[in-house]
Amino acid sequence: MVSPRLARRTVGFVDEYCEAYRHLFADVRSYECFKYLHVGLMSELKRKSLPAIAKLVGLPDSQRLHHFVTSAQWSTQDLKNRRLHLIQALVGKRRMVLIIDETGDRKKGQATDYVAKQYIGNIGKTANGIVSVNAYGVIDNITYPLLFKLFKPKSRLQVGDAYRTKIHLAVEIINTLQQWGFEFELVLADSFYGESSAFISVLQQFKWPFIVAIRSNHGVWLPPGQRVRYNRFRAFEQPLAHHAPEKRFIREIIFGKRRARRYFQITKGTVANAQADSWYIMTDIPDDLLKLPLLYSLRNWIEYGFKQVKSELGWADFRVTDYVSIERWWELILSVYLMISLHTQHFGWQALPPPGAAPSEAIHFPFERHRHWQTEVNWKSTLNNLRLIIEPFVCYQCLKSWLDIFDIPGLHRGLYRLMNCMHQFRASPFARAANVA
């Protein structure tokens, strides 16, 4: 009996992370494509097309990757379940902040499933495009991708489809996360969800605290004889990324008697002014009012971060038209997203000993001495550092065809040696625990 061949190596930390999904792929070629796509999607390619990724990882053409995304025998649901299981195992009993948001991208024509003229939040207007509702968790300012659901416009429903509003999709996501056993210390969402009684009701059902935006004309039922009261404004400092803190003001709006559900107005400007640029939030948490805008501002920062993730990993770069393939593409991107997030929180500069070796066998490799190495603990800096680690592998794939023509033994040996050094950059103990889970 002939033993199946082993999957080709890519880069140490990618191989180690992908090993957690190895059992989901029946044949080694599919598993290799899974790893190649992780390298390609996290690379510096501006447009993450399958031909560009194939060239980057040294494949002769993109047919293998295209087959993997569109036709290969593997389950998107199983991949999603495994990813959620890893997050659950890694997070443990810690409670996350849950962000519910929608994202859309322009798409030309009508050939792609569920593309229609609709509101695209990213550009702030109606355009031809595709929209999804997304949920992601946050711990220590690091995001972990959870679930997404595609919004299917009425005009593009297919046989067997049932129309679901974006609110229905968000509620379905929350129910699924609760069934998985996730717990959240806070839920954040914009006014589209804040104005929905169905959305708020499911949060209250699971006793998940929330801060949501509401419209300025938000309506609240008042018993006869009660009135609306406006407390005085209080100043606070709003931290801003790459800018000095900005002075803002907040006041509570009380509809009749103060209840568990509270309402606040937040304004910009140097002085308290009810007519200034304002936004409104609703919450059921009893914290001091000066903490509320700081908590809610996390949503805006995370929303910006998710847009950056989309841009860096190629969320909208799929070149397939059927939703089954699109869903696979998005799920692969969330897997890459998670791989980077795992390294962000517990990023190790020292190579770890191989599995089974004694801790004393760890060898220090001075990865951080690279001139472009970034020491900031955030998702983008981690991605940039991981891109440095995959550079020798990518460089070798680019030069391999020339080395087949011009045999330069010293260059061969040097590149292999450099790639072996990069293999020593292994996942942190936190990420390695995922492979055991």
Describe this structure in words.
This protein has about 425 residues and is α+β, with helices and mostly antiparallel strands. The chain has 13 helices and eleven strands. Strands 1, 2, 3, 4, 5, 6, 7, 8, 9, 10 and 11 form an eleven-stranded mixed beta sheet that branches. A hairpin with a 2-residue loop joins strand 8 (about 235-240) and strand 9. The two termini are about 30 Å apart.
Number of alpha- plus pi-helical segments? 13
Sequence stretches where pLDDT stays below 50 over 5 or more residues: 347-353
Write down the secondary-structure element order. Answer: HHHHHEEEEHEHHEEEEEEHHHHH
- Class computed from helices, strands and strand pairing: alpha+beta
* Mean pLDDT over all positions: 88
Termini distance?
A: 31 Å
The fraction of residues in strands falls at: 15-25%
Radius of gyration using CA atoms only: 24 Å
Please give the share of residues in helix: 40-55%
Shape: globular
Total number of beta strands: 11
Q: In this structure, how is the largest beta sheet organized?
A: 11 strands, mixed
